[in-house]
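Need a sequence for this fold. Nothing fancy.
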């Protein structure tokens, strides 16, 4: 039973490929320049912005995982995401493949982020959130109206030893390693859930290989204990043997920095995730699979250890 990862080269795609070996060794990795994660992986070069290449990549697959991460740009997301999800849905329907969409929580805006469950309504408060809501709605409508076998596997922001697109790793880990102050956005004493990529990938694969999980939205496993930005910094400082000094960037400064820094520019509209409690609740997953997520402390320790091995 071939299981295919669309966008296999990113932080999530690599971890999903690793986790899939618990279920199958018939794994296809799709991307512009895919590289093997496991010895038996099939590599399939494709431009996933091209509809015909999406269809070729999906052909012969039983389960398709969509884990692609476009450049962090509202302009690029607006152009690329709705077209991609439609093409992937059509390809999965044509080739009778199940679809697992690895999603973020951007469709939840405002104070909805205080406690994010699967029943929290989609009310985006950012341009990126509007785009992700459109994508989710397209997928959910295809499940209801076209009989698509699909599920949404949703995560908060991510961290792990593959540091791409992780605010936590760049502003906290990288700064501490350089002997500088860790940086947090807006409010270091607000709760802020972040998912550990190997754990999120494991949950994604478990869902994909559970037939009765389809047709639903799932929050992926994250330690259920609330944790603040300050506590994240303390965990990394302890694991690294560094001072836990921190600097908090207020929204006004993030906006000012955004005039010269594209990432800060794109982050500004997402600060509602940092200026108040942001708690991601995976109780539904944990109860369905009788699963206990890795603790925040264990995840930080594993991440630091992995990065230390890479540096050797």
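Here you go.
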């Amino acid at each position: 039973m071939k299981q295919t990862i669309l966008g296999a080269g990113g932080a999530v795609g690599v971890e999903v490929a690793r986790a899939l070996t618990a279920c199958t060794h018939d794994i296809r990795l799709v991307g512009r320049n895919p590289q093997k994660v496991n010895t038996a992986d099939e590599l399939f070069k494709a431009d996933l912005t091209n509809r015909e290449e999406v269809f070729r990549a999906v052909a012969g697959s039983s389960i398709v995982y969509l884990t692609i991460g476009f450049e962090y740009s509202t302009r690029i997301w607006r152009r690329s995401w709705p077209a991609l999800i439609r093409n992937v849905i059509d390809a999965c329907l044509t080739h009778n493949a199940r679809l697992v969409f690895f999603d973020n929580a951007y469709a939840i805006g405002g104070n909805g982020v205080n406690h994010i469950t699967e029943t929290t309504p989609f009310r985006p408060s950012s341009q990126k959130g509007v785009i992700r809501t459109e994508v989710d709605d397209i997928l959910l409508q295809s499940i209801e109206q076209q009989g698509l076998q699909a599920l949404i596997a949703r995560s908060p922001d991510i961290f792990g030893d593959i540091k791409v697109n992780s605010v936590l790793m760049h502003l906290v880990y990288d700064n501490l390693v350089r002997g500088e102050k860790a940086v947090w956005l807006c409010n270091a004493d607000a709760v802020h859930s972040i998912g550990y990529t190997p754990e999120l990938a494991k949950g994604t694969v478990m869902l994909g290989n559970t037939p009765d999980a389809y047709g639903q939205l799932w929050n992926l496993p994250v330690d259920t204990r609330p944790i603040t930005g300050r506590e994240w910094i303390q965990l990394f400082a302890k694991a690294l043997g560094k001072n836990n000094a921190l600097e908090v960037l207020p929204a006004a400064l993030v906006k000012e920095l955004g005039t010269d820094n594209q990432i800060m520019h794109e982050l500004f509209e997402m600060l509602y995730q940092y200026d108040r409690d942001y708690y991601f609740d995976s109780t539904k997953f944990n109860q369905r699979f009788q699963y206990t997520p890795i603790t925040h402390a264990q995840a930080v320790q594993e991440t630091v250890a992995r990065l230390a091995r890479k540096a050797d």
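For context: The radius of gyration is 19 Å.
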